[in-house]
Amino acid sequence: MGRADVVDNSNELGHEGGTHQASAVCTAFQHLVADAALALEPDRFASAVRLLDSVRAGGNCLYAIGNGGSAATAGHLASDLAMTSGPHAAGLRTHALTGNTPLLTALANDIGYDRVFSEQLARLLTPGDVVVAISVSGDSPNIVEGLKTARARGVRSVGLLGGSGGGAAALVDVPLLVDSPVYGVVETVHLGLVHSLALALGTGRGHTRDILAPSLDGTQG
Fold it and tell me: Left, alpha or beta for 46 (phi > 0: left; psi -120 to 50: alpha)?
């Protein structure tokens, strides 16, 4: 095949048809996210809020774990829940176990990647702490091992999981399941849950609660 025979599609999205297709993809993704988010069980979310609030009240610590995009969400969770948005809000003590790159890589190299969270948790956990595990599959070995360590030490856990939750679902006290076969949809809703938890706990930044006030009191939406 010569160069003249190669079809160049690099500018396809610049044409009217390509633009329409891109717009359709965006709209379809937004609908999938909305459907998955609305299917979440509110009672389980409320249970997660109560658990995290008890951790705050006891002066204990939240430890967040995840891989890849979920590692970023773990860091986002730790950041948002540690922040305060006003004089009446109190942040939680939080620690994302994904953030210490030297320790993470040393554990992976010397012991095994499946133990990068469990080894940290074994050293850090105290009674009253909580572990938040974030995983689309729920079957990542290091997530499962981390949750086993939490359970062995009597520490409760919350799971932001996808589908049926995989092996992690049976190990967490509060599973928040996002039922979608689309990886990006699950990760997007997980991030939405992070912001929802922050809002419910009063640690969300900005004036989000004021904006949502009409919906919260039932006068709108």
Answer: alpha
Which residues make beta-bridge pairs with 178? 162
Burial group, residue 20, by CB count within 10 angstroms (0-12, 13-18, 19+): exposed
In percent, the amount of the chain with pLDDT more than 70 equals 81
Residue 152 pLDDT greater than 70, yes or no: yes
Cβ(171)–Cβ(141) below 8 Å: no
Q: How far apart are CA 174 and CA 103, in angstroms?
A: 28
pLDDT at 2: 43
Give the residues across from 95 on adjacent strands: 63
Backbone angles phi, psi at 94, to 5 degrees: -135, 155
Q: Are 158 and 174 in contact (CB under 8 A)?
A: yes
Q: What are phi and psi of 146, to 5 degrees?
A: -60, -40
Q: How far apart are CA 165 and CA 183, in angstroms?
A: 13
For the whole model, what pTM was predicted? 0.86
How large is the average pLDDT for residues 48-60?
96
